[in-house]
Amino acid sequence: MRKSADSENSSSRTSVDPHDDTMISTDTGEDGSPHYHQANPDLMTEDEQQKERDFRKKLNRAARELVSNTIHDKVKLIVHRPDYTLEDQYEYDRLSKGLMPIVREIARKTLPLLEHEVSSEYVRNRYYGSKFQADSVAYRDYRYFAKKRPPSDSPSLVVGLRIDESASMSAFGRLKAAKQAVMAVYEYCQICQIPILIYGDTADVSRMEQMSIFAYTDFEKPDPSDRFRLMNIQARSNNRDGMALRMIAERLAVSPQQTKLLISISDGQPKAMDDYTGNNAVNDMQQTIEEYERRGVRFLEAAIGQDKDIIQEIYGNDRFLDISDLHELPAKLVRMITRYI
């Protein structure tokens, strides 16, 4: 298993225009070929390196405080800030070539809606209001009304993406599909200027690291190079889903955005040592979902493995997305996000 480096090994940044119609993953030369920049912490100033270390420590401290007084209280946790290499940049460029035309097309259709929402007198998709929206009934989410917007109120969305990095993700092309879906969602959110947080997780890497969180992108510290960190997503060990969901949901719950969407990509039911399995794990997950839904977080589970029936039972029909064809996953997730704008 390859273990990701800590944030003090973070590398140089690239400048990206999210609205550019060229390949987004890298800068390009005069002939259109991409420029790649070797990840090298020596290129960062000492101040930049210290900020990376401080950010990683902040994430670790906040995560440990969050799970205190829960069933995860005694679990040994480490939050990593993965680095990226030149090979990661090559891989990102290769995987993104087929995705970006689809992402740009969906974003092209979305951007006019965003402009309309900003200028509109009404806030759409409310549970109650003074104006009924017949076109919203098809979504069956009870957000059928619009209400007058106060002068300071503007529509907004924040997205959290959780990736199950359990060992079973290596089977049947699931890992590649998950990577491409994450890339598509990330680039779509960059184009539409939607804040996004992408965390991966695994459990039981060792007795000293019973829960591992990988902070690939974070809206608190956005970096154009984050797209290359996504290439560190891999199949590792077990999965302690409830703990990962709680950590991401908390970040979303305290964010200032109006709509908070948490998407989980998983291929199996929760299972971690010593006894995080069966009803114990299911109850923890359901309690976490209920707790954070009361705080305004919307959950969506993209199930891509053999335990779809169990996952559907955990999340419920309204939060469940059955991905039978892995090739559909990237575009399907991006289109799902457009429903919440």
From TrEMBL:
Residues 1-54 are annotated as: Disordered. Residues 158-337 form the VWFA domain. PROSITE patterns: VWFA. This is Nitric oxide reductase activation protein NorD. It comes from Paenibacillus alvei.
